[in-house]
Amino acid sequence: MKKILLQLDCDPLASVFDAVTAYDAGADVVLQYGNVTTENVVDLVYGVMFTRGGDKLKYSAIFIGGSNVSRASEILDVVKKTFFGNVRNSVMFDPSGCNTTAAAAVAKMTKACDVKGQKVVVLAGTGPVGQRAAAMFAMEGAKVVVTSRKFEKAQAAAEEIKATFGLEVQPFAAFDDESTTEALKGAVAALCTGAPGVTLIREPLWKANPSLKVLGDVNAVPPMGVEGMKSSYNGEVIEGKVMLGSMGIGGLKMRVHRTCIERLFERNDALFDAQSILEIAKELS
Q: Total domain count for the chain?
């Protein structure tokens, strides 16, 4: 029986990246829908819920993506409420690659350094990847600080993380060398999740920090978020710090993404969201 993936995207055009990854992971057919909303998603889900029964339900699965994580989250809520009893399909939630990217970064960084009970800083952590990474570090027992250039944005992100995951993180304004140095004081790990081409930690700052053990950067566009970072770094030790660049993190991200798609078709009641995707990333790292 063919493995059919229903790709639900809140953007006008469904992501080609997500479709190609799904095919590479073994999906036989990807049904792509853009402009998916909470109002029109139910009939799409019915199409995979009611066409196969019993053990065959597992051969139809759902992927929720798009660039707007809030809207995608609302769609996920409706999808979950549409299911009943054993009439359901496995679902993966990864809009903007937020879960797979964050999980890959956190898995690699926590493998390089034990963060339980330790301070970890997620710089420019107000976006989808930053918020998910902050939550995942907190799941691993870290004392997490989320920064933004404006305290109000960092505070809003902390409140969103609390509302979504029930986890506490500390907001902090880091807008220059002095405030960034203060944010990093006592931290064992720092992850940059800012906009492409924006440097968040200058090289003299991280080199002079005695507590930092691992630095991660998801930015692939020069200049890097961590000055002196190379996107190809995948565990190289520079000045006593383990360095993880976007390609080093991205390689694991793609493996995690494909593995989640593969496992969607093993059962009909799986949900791959932040915590379960992090567990897969730790397994593969």
A: 2
